[in-house]
Specification:
Main location: membrane
Order of helices and strands: EEEEEEEEEEEEEEEEEEEEEEEEEEE
Largest sheet: 4 strands, mixed
Number of helices: 0
Distance between the termini: 146 Å
CATH topology of the largest domain: Immunoglobulin-like
CATH class of the largest domain: Mainly Beta
Oligomer: single chain
Membrane topology: Single-pass membrane protein
CATH superfamily of the largest domain: Cadherins
CATH architecture of the largest domain: Sandwich
Keywords: Calcium, Glycoprotein, Membrane, Transmembrane, Transmembrane helix
Pfam families: Cadherin (PF00028)
Strand content: 35-45%
GO cellular component, one term: plasma membrane
Length: 349
């Protein structure tokens, strides 16, 4: 500051003025971040501290000026994600906040069957301000289930004898459903299913447990497929159970009988007596078991002049009236395996 007089010559004087700006408590406290998340296992005892709220206030000099509390609304969802009605009030007493420190503690016995996620409104107050200033935030607490039980498969599966048997028709199109495995878990859900190691013939849907055909299954090549299915639960720590699956491949009649020649030629003396052996034909069927058993018969206009043994395929003369010198007989041999037939033209002199 400069002062100047009115004399002549003029004289001046100077002085220094120091202005001190005093802070006023004009900013409210706030949570950082405004929504905070944590988790606690359901076996924790009352009084157990598992989290500390984070809040700030730019114009306080003493951290003790901040005081914490829990306020309404307090909401919760169950383990399946359903919102709990406000009448179910037990979960509101699960947790509390220590006012002086902002530490969150277990206030009553936790019950995850009642509530799996609790969402609380939290309040921080600057008590040094006049009037006191407040800020609000949200604390989301997930109650972690103790995973006491592994998954289990339907009976007759047991942990001691973890085997299941299914049937699978051969030659089913890719994607055809063979069976559905539904595992259950008393204290969590099923996270996924896997075939371990991966199987050449079958696939399992990770979510539904549906077993389907992955590639062609031919009974004549493989009659039984054994593989392991593992079910994993959603608990912490994650647990699993395995089932040894035996898939019995069911045979179908999918192959036609085949003669070893496209045509046969034979001669027989005229007027040969009944029962005279003429020729033996042969057919094979690659189907297994009963589906590969062949029966023979004759067709055609002149087939009555001959007979064929159904099992051994030998052709015999039936009567001698039709067997004339230099006559030509065209008959058809039929090889049958259950519902599949194979025709063969056959010339007889």
């Amino acid at each position: 500051i400069v002062a100047v007089d009115a004399g002549s010559p003029q004289h001046t004087g100077t002085a220094t003025l120091v202005v001190q700006v005093l802070n006023s408590n004009d900013k409210a406290p706030y949570f950082t971040p405004s929504t905070q998340r944590t988790q606690v296992t359901e076996d924790q005892n009352e009084g157990h501290i598992f989290y500390k709220l984070k809040a700030a206030d730019p114009d306080i000099t003493n951290p003790d000026s901040l005081v914490y509390a829990v306020s309404e609304p307090i909401t919760a969802t169950d383990k399946d994600g359903r919102q709990l009605p406000s009448q179910v009030a037990g979960y509101k007493a699960f947790f509390d906040v220590i006012p002086e420190t902002g530490e969150v503690k277990v206030a009553s016995r936790l019950d995850r069957e009642m509530a799996a996620i609790v969402t609380m409104t939290v309040v921080v107050t600057d008590i040094s301000a006049t009037p006191p200033q407040t800020g609000t935030g949200t604390l989301v607490v997930t109650i972690i289930d103790l995973n006491d039980f592994p998954p289990s498969f339907p009976r007759p599966w047991t942990p001691e004898n973890p085997e299941l048997h299914i049937n699978a028709m051969e030659e089913q199109p890719k994607g055809s459903v063979v069976a559905t495995l539904v595992a259950t878990d008393p204290d969590s859900n099923i996270a996924e299913y896997r075939i371990e190691p991966e199987n050449e013939f079958f696939h399992i849907d990770n979510t539904s447990g549906v077993i389907s055909v992955k590639s062609r299954v031919d009974y004549e090549s493989v009659q039984e497929v054994v593989f392991k299915v593992v079910a994993y639960d959603t608990g912490i720590p994650q647990m699993s159970a395995s089932a040894l699956i035996t898939a019995k491949v069911l045979n179908i009649n999918d192959n036609d009988p085949m003669f070893d020649q496209s045509s046969y030629h034979a001669t027989v003396p005229e007027n040969s007596p009944q029962g005279t052996s003429v020729i033996t034909v042969n057919a094979t069927d690659s189907d297994a078991a009963d589906f590969g058993v062949i029966r023979y018969s004759l067709l055609g206009e002149r087939s009555l002049d001959f007979t064929i043994d159904q099992k051994v395929s030998s052709v015999f003369a039936a009567n001698n009236t039709g067997l004339l010198m230099n006559s030509l007989h065209l008959i058809v041999a039929l090889a049958s395996s259950l519902r599949r037939d194979s025709l063969l033209l056959k010339y007889m002199l």
